[in-house]
Amino acid sequence: MGKTFTSINPANGQIAGRYPIFTAKEVGLVVDQARTAANDWSSLGFGGRKKVLLNWSTHIIDNVEAISELISLETGKPLSDARLEVANAVNHIGWAARHAEEIMRTSHRAPGALMANMSATVERSPLGVVGVIGPWNYPIFTPMGSIAYALAAGNTVVFKPSEYTPGVGMWMDESFNAIAPFAGIFTTITGLGETGNALCTSAINKLSFTGSTRTAKLVAAACATQMTPVVLECGGKDPVSCSRCQP
User: Fold this and answer.
1) For residue 244, what is the enclosing H or E element?
2) What average pLDDT does this structure show over 48-64?
3) How far is CA 119 from the centre of its chain?
4) pLDDT tier at 2 (50, 70, 90 boundaries)?
5) CA atoms of 225 and 202, how far apart (whole Å)
6) What pTM does this model have?
7) Residue 45: how many other CB atoms lie within 10 Å
8) 23, 2 in Cβ contact below 8 A?
9) Which of 169, 180, 120, 121 is nearest to 142 (CA)?
10) Can you tell me the distance from the alpha carbon of 155 to that of 149, in angstroms, rounded to the nearest whole number?
11) For residue 138, is pLDDT > 90?
12) What whole-number distance in Å separates Cα of residue 36 and Cα of residue 148?
């Protein structure tokens, strides 16, 4: 086994779990596997992907207590809050599964007076492999806002959870792959900042990040080296913002 790191229960300081630190090479291999799976996942069509995603939401609902307890363990939030978070994450999956085809369908645009004799259409296609880096405070709800929609659109996803909540990220991986038609559609990688940087500089087609403004700047800079487009949700500055998410 390579290097590992520990997840700590913030309520009592005890070790909640131990997880591998993915190296840059290992991250590259996971992204390669996701790229291999991307064509088959896209080829399932909206109906096929909808079925898989709804099966995933059902699996999460059937195991809501297990994932809620894990969220509570790694974040320190009350179990009732963790259950609410899971319910909101399931809503993300259901909405994405049911509305992806409508959102992504070909649409027509007025070409304007200069090209009145022509027609214009907008077609939306999956990008390929989408990387997602999630926060610790809402470790399933927040990243699911990127994961579910990327999957519904036909992309495969490589997810790097916060180093504070790696167990939640691994549970998401295991729960999806318990119902997935084949491997490589959704994969979780765990680690510290170096693992996140490796994901940013890998052969992904887009990256979604939620976290502090300071880290967002590093993520944007790393993705820029590969000209990888990014979506950044940065930490707030209001008096009740969590300290780990502050700039």
Assistant:
1) none
2) 98
3) 37
4) confident
5) 10
6) 0.91
7) 11
8) yes
9) 169
10) 9
11) yes
12) 19
The pairing of beta strand 107-109 with beta strand 206-211: unpaired
Q: Which two tokens stand for residue 133?
A: 């880096």
Structure tokens at 104: 């992504």
> Could you give the CA distance from residue 126 to residue 77 in angstroms, rounded to a whole number?
36
Is residue 190 within 8 A of residue 160, CB to CB? The reply is yes
Domains (range + CATH), the chain: 31-101+125-200 (3.40.605.10)
Number of other residues whose CB lies within 10 A of the CB of residue 62: 10
What is the rounded CA–CA span in Å between residue 144 and residue 134?
9
| 158 and 204 Cβ atoms separated by less than 8 Å | yes
Comparing CA positions, the residue from 150, 158, 156, 148 lying closest to residue 199 is 158
Rg (CA), the chain: 19
Nearest-angstrom CA–CA distance, 108 and 117 = 14
> Residue 185 contacts by C-beta under 8 Å, 6 or more apart in sequence?
34, 37, 41, 52, 151, 156, 157, 176, 177
